[in-house]
Design goal:
about 220 residues, mainly alpha, Arc Repressor Mutant, subunit A, Tetracycline Repressor, domain 2, 2 domains, two-stranded antiparallel sheet, 9 helices, about 70% helix
């Protein structure tokens, strides 16, 4: 019997995750099959199901681990700053909104599927396990910011990250009204349905920040 060590299991899980991620970079979620993921990862379909009981569970895991990595990046940026004022933090949040959309488009696309698609089939226990890890990372970020900006609580920071995500996902869903299945609709001019995702997300988030925390975030 071939019994894998924990390290070998983690390596195989990462291999499966990377294969699924590569496919999702260029393909719609609905067009990707578990058989295709197994083939791309060079594992048997049976092995794949040993790690993830369905496609939704696999992609939910990709989403939650992807946002853990994103929070880690934000934490590193904050720790690298000698000082962090209220306006510094606001600027960082707005800049990171732009960075998130421009450098992590696959993660942003995946996040837009969380509620309407992924949670409909994902394994609850597995999802909760990874969500707990994401929550812990979110709280770590909140603690770091709240320590340096006493007027903000950990909950404040947590909510700001959630709002950032919600703004991006909402606008991303609406930005596709002038296309169908990621293909532009050429016969009809839907000019007024077009959304500049980066520009509009930053603008909406800025308005939220200055409206909710007028004394904290001044402009």
């Amino acid at each position: 019997m071939n019994i894998l060590t924990e390290k070998q299991k983690a390596t195989r899980a990462n291999k499966i995750a990377e294969a699924a991620w590569r496919l999702f970079e260029t393909r719609p979620f609905a067009k990707i099959t578990m058989s295709e993921i197994a083939k791309t990862a060079d594992v048997s379909k049976g092995t794949l199901f040993n790690y993830f009981d369905c496609k939704e569970s696999l992609f939910m895991t990709l989403l939650l681990t992807g946002y853990q990595q994103y929070f880690d990046e934000v934490i590193k940026l904050i720790r690298a700053k000698e000082t962090l004022t209220k306006n510094d933090f606001m600027d960082l949040l707005l800049n990171q909104t732009k960075v998130l959309i421009e450098t992590k488009p696959t993660l942003v696309r995946l996040n837009a599927l969380r509620g309407p698609v992924l949670e409909q089939g994902a394994n609850m226990a597995q999802t909760v396990s990874y969500r707990e890890k994401l929550y812990a990372k979110n709280q770590e970020l909140g603690e770091i910011v709240a320590t340096r900006i006493p007027s903000l609580t950990i909950k404040d920071v947590s909510q700001l990250m959630l709002v950032q995500s919600a703004i991006i996902s909402g606008l991303m869903n609406m930005s596709s009204l002038n296309s169908f299945n990621r293909h532009p609709i050429a016969k009809i001019n839907f000019e007024n349905f077009q959304i500049n995702l980066v520009e509009d997300a930053v603008s909406v988030f800025r308005n939220y920040l200055t409206g909710k925390y007028p004394e904290t975030f001044t402009r």
